[in-house]
């Protein structure tokens, strides 16, 4: 047997370190590529129409698009509608709904979105008290 055991252990440690470094970079959270999203109301925005109907009038609600507040209503009514200009890719959009109903009664909200090409898409949200749900419109 030739060579020092300490020198062999050091060589093995250096080899593991160099092989582990690329693996660490691949699995580290900062290695994930960031996606760039267009803010609400920028170039390429298209008109959509939202209609909401509630079984019980909520105390408050808001809708988020791309992490930004799209619509907030401190005193909502049983039925509401509004037009928006948002980027609408062919894959569709995700809208986050945060609704707060009074009491502990099971309630529902019907959401109808008219796409830029004129199609009507219906979704329903059910909940008691506070509800937060992401709806995808394709």
Can you describe what's shown?
The protein is built from one helix and eight strands, in the order H-E-E-E-E-E-E-E-E. With 138 residues, it is an alpha+beta fold. The protein has a domain at 45-137: Lipoxygenase-1 (Sandwich), CATH 2.60.60. A four-stranded antiparallel beta sheet has the order 4-1-6-7, with no helix packed on it. It has a four-stranded antiparallel beta sheet with strand order 3-2-5-8, with no helix packed on it. Residues 31-41 have low confidence and may be disordered.
Quick one: CATH class of the domain at 45-137?
A: Mainly Beta
Q: List the secondary-structure elements in sequence, H or E.
A: HEEEEEEEE
Global mean pLDDT? 84
State which percent range the strand residues make up. Answer: over 45%
The tally of beta strands, per DSSP, is 8
Total of DSSP H or I helical runs spanning 4+ residues: 1
Strand arrangement within the widest β-sheet reads 4-1-6-7
Biggest sheet record: 4 strands, antiparallel
Architecture per CATH nomenclature, i.e. the level-2 architecture of the domain at 45-137: Sandwich
**Sheet/helix structural class:** alpha+beta
Taking all Cα atoms into account, the compactness measure Rg is: 25 Å
Helix content: 10-25%
Globular, elongated, flat, extended or rod-shaped: what is the shape? elongated
CATH domain fold name of the domain at 45-137: Lipoxygenase-1
> Which regions contain 5 or more consecutive residues with pLDDT less than 50?
31-41
- Give the distance, in angstroms, between the N- and C-terminal Cα atoms: 69 Å
């Amino acid at each position: 047997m030739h060579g020092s055991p300490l020198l062999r252990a050091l060589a093995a440690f250096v080899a593991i370190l160099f092989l582990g470094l690329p693996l660490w970079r691949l699995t580290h959270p900062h290695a994930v590529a960031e996606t760039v999203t267009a803010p609400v109301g920028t170039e390429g925005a298209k008109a959509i129409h939202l209609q909401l109907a509630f079984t019980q009038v909520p105390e408050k609600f808001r809708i988020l698009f791309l992490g930004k507040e799209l619509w907030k209503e401190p005193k909502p009514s049983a039925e509401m509608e509004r037009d928006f200009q948002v980027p609408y890719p062919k894959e569709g959009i995700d809208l986050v709904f945060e609704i707060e109903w009074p009491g502990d009664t099971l309630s529902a909200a019907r959401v109808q979105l008219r796409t830029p090409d004129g199609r009507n898409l219906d979704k329903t949200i059910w909940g008691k008290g506070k509800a937060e749900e992401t709806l995808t419109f394709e």
